[in-house]
Fold these 2 entries.
Entry 1:
Amino acid sequence: MLEHFIFKLRGSNNLPMDEKALTQFPIALPLKEVKALTNGIINTTDLITAADGQKYIFQKINTNIFKNTEGMMKNIDIVTTHIREKAAKSGRDPERATLHFLPASNNTLLYKNENGAYRVSKYIANTVSFEGKATEKSLEMAGRSFGTFIKDLSDLDASLLSETLPNFHNTPMRIAHFLETVKSNPANRLDSAREDVDYLISLIDEGSKLSKIKLPLRVTHNDTKTSNVLVDKTTLEPLAVIDLDTVMPGLLCHDFADSIRYSANYVAEDEKEYYRAGLDIDMYKAYAKGFIPAVSSIITKEEIDTLVQGVITIVYEQAIRFLDDYLAGDVYYHTQYSEHNLVRTRTQIGLLRDMLKRRNEMEAIARDPSLYK
């Protein structure tokens, strides 16, 4: 199984992204080595080795995406402090159970200058992240990790955190924006996507169900890809959830749903043979097998009742977001060709159709009493 765990390093250079910014953190200079990491697509990240041999992760935050960097880092500080306390009480190593950011010269976890916003975290040694195609084993581990993340933070008041990405899972708002784009047809692409538009409009009631249900507001991760879990390089046991920029108040079912949407589809998100899209029930079951037992002691009846609805809603929401962007002329998502967002839409629609047909099967797995012992 080791071959599935890859820690990608891209090239090597002599200087970090911003040498002036780096001097604002308590790191022994000059640096011995700098390597650019490519397993993230939002922030710019270097793995640096300080003069004393200590390794750190040095990042320039993408402020086009994360506009409230102070609020984001405050969230991260609150969450990581809480997890370290929980880890220490449960016998886990608090320094390997979560990320640990260094204070800058301004006594915050963030340094900003004319070039951007920067932060530094300790490198967690002897770890890897899952970067290849998900397997049942890796998906179960990811489910356990993200479930444990929510459980560890279940006694933390979610109102203490700011919304890093406002209205991120506000499905009614996404629907309203989608309908406006359909009406205005700004890129004159409506004719090429009429069938897709009509199908998604026909499911507005389905896509709106979750928003009408009162559910506990929790501290959630909101980007539950398998690559956001660090595992021990030797034992392959999960250690820490990373990429905490999207941690904010949210619903438990969102963290259950997003990993399934991303990893339990038969095809990749932008597969041109989108007609092959559909739910891989074994992968769905694997994530449930990891996630549900981890949250079984804190999950409410209402949350159990909405696990599957959450998955369906997230897939629907992503479909309208891709199609909205296609109709608008590809203004948000990066595309490689003119129909890229339309292809992405159709892989989500294929997955959605299959989920709606197999809802009872999905419900039976999500309600399996053996997962709640």
Note: The first strand starts at residue 9 and ends at 13.
Entry 2:
Amino acid sequence: VMSGTSLDGLDLCYTQFTGDVSTDVWSFRIEKAITIPYTDTWKGRLSGSVNLNGADLIQLHVEYGHFVGQTVRDFIKEGNLKPDFVASHGHTVFHQVDKGFTFQLGEGETTSIYLTCPFITNFRSKDLALGGQGAPLVPSGERFLFSQTDICLNLGGIANIGLKNGKGYDICPCNIVFNRLAGLHTAFMDYDEDGKLASRGKIKPDLLDQLNDLDYYKLKCPKSLGIEWISAKVFPLLDAKQYTYEDMMRTLAEHVAQKIAQACVDSKPSTKDDEVSVMITGGGAFNKFLIKILSEKLEEHKISIKETDEETINFKEALVFAFLGLRSLLGRENVCSDVTGSTTDTVSGSIH
């Protein structure tokens, strides 16, 4: 179960894993997957959660736990499914590594009352307690499930990268900013379909320079991004009095494509002379304009985009968190310190 910062909805992915615990070699097959779109009410509650007082935040934590439980219960019932367990990322409200905490909505004990199998959640907190970033966690699963792919990119609310050797980090803001600009351009527009608005705009060099010069890009790995940083550092640069929405979106697309392409080039194996493959998943994979300009930048460095089925594009994050939940139940490490920078690999996740 996955809910991302772009607020598209709740991703549910019923998956069969096949593997050998002794060799740690795994494969998967997605049996059934669906996205339950958030209502406008839930979008408003989730996007506004960062501003709640303590009591109201706890109440939302519990109510969202009920929502997740009821939604998963209905998915199981309607599909006549028989899950061995359910794992959920929760919905991130705070991710403040400098203060040593992260918080995802969805109270685990509350969700578990709707299930007849173990429920695993809260995958990030232990890593932060051990000095890690607590993010990104998807590369910790990609190393097992997509081991034949050189580079994995997930273009969600935040764009992140995962490498064949298991390392990874958050690259830059992505859909969370595109979607915000689309909604400001046209009321109730959830996203810029195919990047059409961006394609009509012009790059504004001064804005592009400001985006490219943000301090985050000077940090060394491990590193991760949260909505708080994006709200404080990126949103104020996007001034509708100074730029048109089309120009802001075109400039943002250039910025995102530049940062992702550079991350891929920096991560390209130095021993590999032939072409390197990149798998792109997440909602941004459907932004045709963004993918076009990204592809052009990657081709200059003999990096090609791997053809990927739509189900994997949409549900890879939910798939990976199911796998992290499996590893938690098996007592196997599921958060890797070479990604997050913590003092040790850990078996993370609270089991309910």
Note: The chain has two domains: 2-134+343-351, 150-305.
